Amino acid sequence: MFEFPSFLHIPLAEVVDVVITWLLVHWAGFFDVVSSTVLYSLMNIERFFLWLPWFVVVGLVGAFAWWTIRRWWGVVILAGFLVVIGSFGYWEETMMTLAIIVVSVIISLSVGIPAGIVMTRSDRVQSVIKPALDAMQTMPSFVYLIPALMFFGLGKVPAVFATVIYAMPPVIRLTNVGIRQVSTDVVEAARAFGSSGRQVLFEVQLPLAIPSIMVGINQTTMMALAMVVIASMIGARGLGLEVLKSINRIEVGRGVEAGLCIVLMAIIIDRISYAIAARQDYTVKTKFQSRKKGN
Amino acid sequence: MANNATSGNGEITVAVSGLWKVFGPNADEIINSERRTATKQYLLEQTNCVMAVRDASFEVRRGEIFVIMGLSGSGKSTLIRCLLRLIEPTLGKIIINGEDICGYDDEQLMELRRHTTGMVFQYFGLFPHRNVLDNVAYGLKVRGMSKEERYVRAREVIDMVGLNGWEDYYPATLSGGMQQRVGIARALAIDPDILLMDEPFSGLDPLIRRQMQDQLIELQAQVQKTILFVTHDLDEALKLGSHIAIMKDGDIIQIGTPEEVIVSPGDAYVQKFVQDASAAKVVTANFIMEQPNILLYEWEGPKAAMHMLMTAKITHAFLVARGNRYLGLVTLERLVELFRSKGRSLKEALQTNVPTCTPDTVIEDLLPLAVSTEFPIPVVDDNGKLLGEIHNSTIILSLIQEKGAEEEEVVMNGETAIEDRGSGLDV
C-alpha cells in the first residue's frame, strides 16, 4: 500500500558503472603498469620463498621466535607448526599465500602509514578519511573483488589489491591514533625550540607513536591473511584455493587440513609480529630500567 | 620604572605593546568594538569568545627576572606563549631585540626560537623517548649541530644544573625536581638571550620548589639571562622578580617592583593578594618550628639530665613522657636544686606554666605568647605530643620576611624544621 516512492531513485549503481567503465578505457595503461609491477615483485618473492629449502624456513621461523619471544617452547611450538603444515602436503601453497601476504602488507604500510600521518594534520582530513576506512572494512569483500577483477584481470594481482583495501585500515587508524596521543606538552616543547613541522614529526611524534603503529602493523598483517583466503576466489593460488576446491568437491578432510594450515600460519605470523610490536614498547622501558640497575 | 639598579642594565630586550589574544570566532570584531572593555564573563556568555589577554603592554630589560603573576585563567600562560607565537596573538606588537616578531615568517620564527629564546614548561615537556643528554641537546640538534659538538655543550649545561651522572637516564626515572632541571638545562643549552619559564616550579612539592627557586637565583647570577617567569604564587614572584606584572582576567592590573607591589598595591585585587600572602596571617607554627636540641625523658635521673644540659650549654629543655608526650619545661636551675635535695624524679623540677601552641597557630597569634615567656614555645599537637619548638628570633625573622627582606633565611629555617621533624622526634 505504501510503497517507497519510485521517483526517489538514486542512480548510484549507474554512476559507479560509468566511472568504472571510464577508468577502464582511459586508465588502462596505468592499470597495466601497476599490474605488471605488482605481479613482477610478487612472482619474485614467491619464487624466492619456494626456492628456500623447507628446513631453512623452519629454522628462520625458529630463530625469529627466539629473537622475539625468548622462550624455548615458543621456538618449538612455532617451528613445529610449520612442520605440521609441510606434513599435510601444503608447503607450496603456504609459501604462495605468504608471498601474497608479504606484498600486500608492504603496499598497505607504504600507503597506510603516510595516510595515517596525513590524517593527523587536520581534523577535516580525518573526518573525510574515517568514514572511508569504515567503508573499506565493512563493505563485503566480494564487492571490491569485482572491480579489482575488472582492472587487473584474474589472478594474483587483483587478489593483492583486494587484500590491500581490506587490510590497510588498521595501520592507518593506529598511526593516526598513535600520533594524536603524543602529549601536546611534548609537541609544544619541540615547537618552542624551533623544530620545523618535519622535525616535530620525525623527532617526536613518530618515535612516540611507534608502539601504536606496531600494533597497527600486526593487525594489518592478520587481516591480510584473512583476506587472502577469500581472494583465492578470483584465482590466486594458495591455501585459500585449496579450501575452495575442497568445498566444491565436498572433501571435508582436505578442507580441514587446508583450513588448519591457515590457522597455524595465522598463529605463527601473529605471535611473531605481536612480539615485535610488544618489544618496541618494551625497549623504551627496559633501556632505562637496566641503566637504573647498573647504577 | 623604578629600582633597576640591581638588575638589568637598562637596555630593553622585550617590549610588548597593545597585545591582545581573543580565542573564538570574530576575535577581530570584538577588539574593534566597544565590547573590548567588557568583562571576560560577559564576553564568554554573549559572544562565546575568551578574552585571554587584553591590551597588554610591558617592557623587560636585559638581565632581569620579569615575573608575570596571576591565578589560573588570568591569561598569563597565553601571554607568554604569544611571545614566541606558540599561540598567535590576535593583535599587538612584540619587539624582541628591536624587531617586531609578529611580522616574522615561519623561517624567521624558527630562527628566533632556535637561537634567541629558550622555554621551560610547567609539565616539563621532556621527550620520554630520549635520555637526559639527548633531551638537553635537542635544541642544538634542531639547529643542525653535529652530535659531538652538541653533546659537549649539553654536558656543560647538565653540569651547571647539577645533574652530571644522570645523562643516560630516561625522564620517567627522574623525580619532578630533576626533570625540571633537565627542562632548564635544555633551555640553557642553546644559550638563549631570553628564557621563558611557564610556572616551572608549580608542579613540584613546596620543599623542592623553594630549593629550585634558590638555585635559579644562583644560576641567574652565573648566566645573566633575561627571564620571563610566569607563576601563580606571590611568594615566588616576590622572591624572584625584579619586576612583577599582576594579571587578572586577561588584564595586566599592576606592574612594579616587589616593594611597590607590597607597599602600594595597584588596586583592591592586588591588595587582597598581598594581604593574603602576609606571613603573620598565613605562616603556621608547623612551618617555622625547629627540632629541639635536647629532650629530657621522665625516666631519666637528675644527674644525667644536668650533665646533658651542661654539655649542650643550654639552660632549659622540655620534658616528655613515652611517645614524646609533652609534660613541661625543666630549667638547669631547678635541676641543680633537685639534685641537692636528693630528689629522684625529674617531674619534681617540672614547670608547667610555659605557654604552648598547636601546629596550626599562625605567627600573628604566636606573638603574644612569645612576649609572655622567656622560653621557646613548645608546639604540641592535639594528642599532647611534642612536635618542635619555636624561638622568638624565628618569629621575628618571619615578620621581617613579610616586609620583603631577609625572606630566604627564614625560609631556610622553615625547611630545616620540616626536614628534622621526619627524622627526629619519633625515636
Layout: helices, strands, pairs:
The complex is a heterodimer of chains A (295) and B (427).
Chain A lengths: L11 H15 L1 H24 L2 H16 L2 H16 L3 H31 L1 H16 L2 H12 L3 H26 L2 H9 L4 H35 L7 H10 L3 H43 L1
Chain B lengths: L11 E12 L3 H6 L7 H8 L2 E12 L3 E6 L5 H8 L7 E6 L2 E2 L5 H10 L1 E4 L11 H5 L1 H6 L3 H14 L15 H14 L4 E5 L7 H18 L2 E6 L2 H7 L2 E6 L2 E6 L1 H6 L4 H9 L2 H4 L2 H4 L6 E3 L4 H10 L4 E6 L3 E7 H9 L22 H10 L4 E4 L5 E5 L1 H11 L4 H17 L4
Parallel strand pairs in B: 3-8, 3-9, 6-7, 7-8, 11-12
Antiparallel strand pairs in B: 1-2, 1-4, 4-5, 9-10, 12-13, 14-15
Helix pairs in contact in B: 7-8, 15-16, 17-18, 18-19
Descriptive report:
- The complex is a heterodimer of chains A (295) and B (427).
- Chain A is mainly α.
- Helix content of chain A is 86%, strand content 0%.
- Chain A is globular.
- Chain B has 427 residues and is of the alpha/beta class.
- Chain B has two domains: 62-80 and 99-279, 3-Layer(aba) Sandwich (Rossmann fold); 285-423, CBS-domain, CATH 3.10.580.10.
- In chain B, strands 6-7-8-3-9-10 form a six-stranded mixed β-sheet, sandwiched between helices. In chain B, strands 2-1-4-5 form a four-stranded antiparallel β-sheet.
- Chain B is elongated and about 90 Å long.
- The A-B interface holds A 185-186, 188-196, 199, 203-204, 207-208, 284, 287-288, 291-292, 295 and B 84, 86, 110-115, 117-119, 121, 123-129, 131, 138-139, 141-143, 165, 168-170, 172-173, 186, 190, 196.
